[in-house]
Amino acid sequence: MEIVTIDGLTKRYPGFTLDAASFSLSAGRIAGFIGRNGAGKTTTIKSMLNLVHPDNGRISYFGMPLIGNEAQIKKRIGYSTGTISWYPRKKIRTIRDVTKRFYDSWDDATYERYLRLFALDEDKTPLELSEGMKVKCNLLFALSHGAEALILDEPTSGLDPFSRDELLELFEQIRDSGVAIFFSTHIISDIEKCADDIIYISKGRIAAACPKEEFADRYQEPGETLENAFLRLERSAQDA
Question: Is 231 inside any structural domain?
Answer without folding.
Answer: yes
